[in-house]
Amino acid sequence: MNDTTLSVGSLQARPGTKVRGTVQADLGTLIADIPLTLVNGTRPGPRVVITAGVHGGEFPPIDAVVRLADGLESAEVHGQLIICPVANPPAVYQGRLNISPVDGVNLNRVFPGDPAGGPTERLAAWLFTHLLDAADVYIDLHCGGIDQVLRDFVGYRLTGDPDLDKATAELAGAFGIEDVILGLTPEGGNSHAAAARRGVSAVLVEVGQLGQRDEATALRRVDGLLKALRHLGVLDQDGSAPAPIREWVWSAGVTAEATGLWYPEFSFDADVIGEVAGGDLLGRIVDPVDGTEHTVHAPADGRIFYGMHGLTVAPGTELAALAVPWDPDTAARADTLRTPGAGAGSDEAGPRP
Asked: How far apart are CA 69 and CA 85, in angstroms?
């Protein structure tokens, strides 16, 4: 039997209960109300943390997490669930971009945070202290933002711990998503990388694009989460077999080197974003003043997993990210891969600045 009360700040759920509410996070210059659902089963099992709303403008994950929380009851849960639909209220409610309007910082670049830092660094530290430090499993939900097309994928980081990496690989394959992208190191400031460094089995799940809110995508996400929770033993198994997956590693990230208007050559349809070879034309950046064109070419072979849909770009804006099929030999030459992540786009990549 599980006889442990699940507590986050002032919010408490006794065994066999589901509790919803908000907990205040002191960010120095402001107080953020963090919405949470705590589901505490009566039977033993893992503690699983699920977050959405780390970025503004990523609506499908928030919708899916709320639907999941609505449908779960403590009587069916083994272990404990902490569900946070809006991890970054300033960015979600006051902005529509990855950076916070409070201080211009991308929350998913500063984990595990700094309790004495700026507001976003303090928020990262609060989330780690109150949600993740006692977690066994962490699932962070994202999608292509309002200016980004994206192929669905699950991402996780290799840590060098064989047991942890095996457990995380199996979790990544449990969502029913065909493409799984491995980060070759656990370094960087995104949430799942920082959690992996703490020994937590952590994955990033990217489903949906352009921030588009639609019921079909939300239900697809809920179904994937239920599959993962069954795999983890949090919910009873239903006898279904895991779907086959394809494993990838990043081969290149492409960033803008000029200010202007972006005209990509690749499709905006995430289902048909295709393969490119090194040197292929990816698009053009056009100066709106004099029409000067800056051509952008693929620096390596790969499949485009996400791309910039927005029209206006500045130097450093991420335009596309490419991945190639995983070959274990690649791990020995990780430094030859030009991984994405220098800008404000995708959340699964190699080491970040």
From this structure: 9
Q: Indicate the burial class of 335 (C-beta count within 10 angstroms; 0-12, 13-18, 19 or more).
A: exposed
d(CA 345, CA 231): 30
Could you tell me how many residues make up the chain?
353
Measured CA to CA, the distance from residue 173 to residue 177 in angstroms comes to: 7
d(CA 272, CA 178) in angstroms, rounded, equals: 15
Summarize pLDDT for 231-254 with one digit per residue, the tens. 999 999 888 888 899 999 999 999
Which helix (H) or strand (E) covers residue 232, if one does?
helix 215-232
Closest C-alpha among 351, 291, 294, 287 to residue 319? 294
Q: How far, in Å, CA of 82 to CA of 152, rounded? A: 24
Nearest to 262 by CA among 338, 341, 343: 343
For residue 125, the Cα-to-chain-centroid distance in whole angstroms is 17
Tokens of 169: 């690989």
- Both tokens of 29, joined, read 């210059």
197-216: pLDDT as tens digits: 999 999 999 998 888 888 98
258: which 2 tokens? Answer: 């000029």
Provide CB contacts within 8 A for 246, sequence distance 6+.
Answer: 178, 179, 180, 325
Give the Cα separation of 308 and 269 in Å (integer).
12
DSSP string, 97-126: SSB-TTTS-BGGGSTT--TTS-HHHHHHHH
Report the C-alpha gap between 145 and 79 in whole angstroms.
33
User: pTM here?
Assistant: 0.92
**What span, in angstroms and rounded, lies between the C-alpha atoms of 292 and 271?**
32
